[in-house]
Amino acid sequence: MAWGLIEGLTKRMRRSDERQADLALKKTPARLAGLLLQLVEDEGVATPDAYKIPTRYTHDELGAMIGARRVAVTRAFGKLKGEGAVEVRRHLIRVTNLEALERLAEAG
Question: Which stretches in the chain have pLDDT values below 50?
Answer without folding.
Answer: none
